Amino acid sequence: MSGSDAPRLAAPEDFANVLGGLRALADDLDDPFAMPEDALHSALFGPQPLALALVAGGQGVALVQPQISTSAGGVLAYVSDLWVARRARGSGLGRRLLANVARESATRWGALGLRLAVHDSNTNARAFYARMGFVIHGHDRIAQLKGAEFATLKATP
User: Fold this and answer.
1) Where does the secretion signal sit in this chain (predicted)?
2) Partner of 51 for a Cys bridge, out of 36, 65, 114, 153, CB 3.0 to 4.6 A?
3) How far apart are CA 76 and CA 112, in angstroms?
């Protein structure tokens, strides 16, 4: 792995790699990629960043945000997206990306741990996370509200 492929915090000039990796992840998972490029750029590099990204050249990307957890007793770094290029899988790059996420989030937000979601059908990812010690809780379910239902809730007095 060259120095340019070593995981590091993304800077604005890395945005093409961030975007490319996130689009590749959506393709790999057969998920939509609905985030407008300018909104993602602003969320990462705008005047009030909401998230951070780590990159490993064009080989890997992690997108992470702080999440306050009363059950954990503090901040957890929520890894909303983790992608490693097919040719780099099995090389340890995913672990190195998450190690950098752990260090950066502990320094930046005082994170006590990591949280992420994994597709039930993604057996390789589930095995990868299990090898690192992640515990998948069967009682946790992600619920999402968006679109017309979200607009209705926003309009509720």
Assistant:
1) none
2) 65
3) 6
Which residue has tokens 């590099």?
45
Task: Fill in the amino acid letter for 83.
Answer: W
Strands (E), the chain: 8-9, 52-56, 60-69, 74-84, 113-116
| Whole-prediction pTM | 0.89
Q: How many CA atoms lie within 13 A of 58 on its CB side?
A: 4
CB 53 within 8 A of CB 63: yes
- 91-117: pLDDT as tens digits: 999 999 999 999 999 999 999 999 998
49-65 pLDDT, tens digit each: 999 999 998 999 999 99
Residue 66 CB partners (closer than 8 Å, separation 6+): 75, 76, 77, 78, 105, 108, 109, 111
